[in-house]
Amino acid sequence: RRWRGISRFQRRLVLLLLALALFVFWFALPRVAVMERAAAGQDLQMVDPPGFEAGPAKPEERADPTSASPPPELPKPPRPPALPDAPGVAGPAAGVAASRRSPLPAGSLGRLSETSPSRRQLAVLEAMQHSWKAYELYAWGKDEVHPLSKSSAVWMGAGLTLIDSLDTLMIMGMSQQVAKAREWVATQLNFDVDKPHTNVFETTIRLLGGLLSAYHLSNDSIYLDRALQLGERLLPAFSSPSGLPYSDINLHTGQASNPVWTVESSTSEVSSVQLELRELSRLTGRPEFADAADRISRVLHSADKKDGLVPIYVNSVTGRLHNGGTVSLGARGDSYYEYLIKQFVQAGKSRSFEYLRDDWLAAMDGVAKHLVRESQPHRFKFVGELLGGTTFSPKMDHLVCFLPGALAYGFLHGMPREHLRLAEQLMRTCYITYTTTATGLAPEITHFNTDAASVADTYVKPLDRHNIQRPETVESLFYMWRVTGDRKYQDWGWAIFQAFEKYTKVQPAGYVSISDVTNARNPGKRTKCESFWFAETLKYFFLLFSEDNDLLPLDKWLFNTEAHPLPIWPRQP
Ligand code: DMJ
């Protein structure tokens, strides 16, 4: 009666408004729902970013990076000047002085990015300042800071956190902190450390890698001088009968050894030093570092593998892989795979490095065949392990979450499109390992249920509940954002960043590891802050939230396994 009582004009107006509301509801609601589900980690049907085919591509297909959907249109700042025209590894010796040229003009600190920082980047910058404050207050010049106990710890005895952080400070434009740290490097840093068991891998990726990147980003020769001093002290570690490095060295005496209890080394440790050694050779014209790297890569290339997969232990004296050993892309296996594709890219995809690309392709086929499974009930793809080389275990270390990023980076450099598809699926799974805990932070290890009757996809064993500020998921989010231009990866990173803010920040300074990600009431703050929090996690957050794709563009730079950027060389024959 009321409807009939109003005028025709009023009726039309009401109908029009109803139609408008329906229209808005129809188009906006699904988007909101998808975003909410994604943020909650419940979006089971992955939405393909426009431009990417779903489903497997032919194995021989090589991606044309230009065919992928381009990252969003962003203001284009001037690119960094061309890379230094330093001699190639096999080129004439040039000496440190002659090759002291970096891709950035002197004094470019704070201007690495020409776009204004985003609100999220500013939050990361504040986190870095808060973290650095703890290091300055409690651990200046020491290896690690313990913000809770307001103390420090010795590991290599060489200012580990300070050196590991240099490039992050530079990228974030923290010029005053860089100046003070540079002063310490110039006047205090001393690699003449008399400790019998300094780990060769950690020293190479964190200290040597950090110094090389600091040099490239600052054009300051002090960092290259120090890198060369360290490289010379590390050299005896590469003189084993097989050519694979000993795990430990005394930097003072040059005595290299494996730990007393074993002759076996971690496969990832012996196989993840070549990027740094070759770059040191290129910059200094000293071939012995690159020669050592070549020997390592060739020994592992010739070793007996199972569909491209390697066990997690290797005998560094004989060069033989541990037969029947566990296969994993997590602890002790991870960066073996990462460095296959990155060595090929570093060398400008030169023909003489194609054998490493082939090893990467074989390994990724092996991963798909033996290690990738789906959880139940939601069919999340994950990467398990082969115990004893044969028995599948649905266990996935947080460390494995480097893989989506490496696959995406490989795709950008010409690897098959199906690698990107797998990267997208694994990226989602890595994110799920965060969203399914009470704190929103991932545990060290996640197990997956594969039984059809399962009610939850994941479970975390009591001893695996800790989070030590690892970077791998944020690292992969950064690559996925750069390669696909899909903003959901930034949003996922932001959710993770906020969880770190809430559960790991301490006052008056610093961020720490926690013991139990499943307990939001009492996550159990630990005292220690890892150096890779500064070197990797915060750096990747900062880059993930950047709108400037020309800030360390991925066709010109690669990141070593400790997130230290190194230039990609021009292609050589
Ligand atoms: C880092 O030192 C490196 O990323 C290494 O390759 C693996 N472990 C840590 C971070 O989790």
TrEMBL record:
Location relative to the cell: Endoplasmic reticulum membrane
Catalytic EC class: hydrolase
UniProt cofactor(s): Ca(2+)
Disulfide bonds: 401-430
Any one GO BP annotation for this protein: proteasomal protein catabolic process
Gene Ontology terms for molecular function: calcium ion binding; mannosyl-oligosaccharide 1,2-alpha-mannosidase activity
Pathway: Protein modification; protein glycosylation
Keywords: Calcium, Disulfide bond, Endoplasmic reticulum, Glycosidase, Hydrolase, Membrane, Metal-binding, Signal-anchor, Transmembrane, Transmembrane helix
Binding-site residues for Ca(2+), renumbered to this chain: 561
Protein name (database record): alpha-1,2-Mannosidase
Organism annotation: Macrostomum lignano
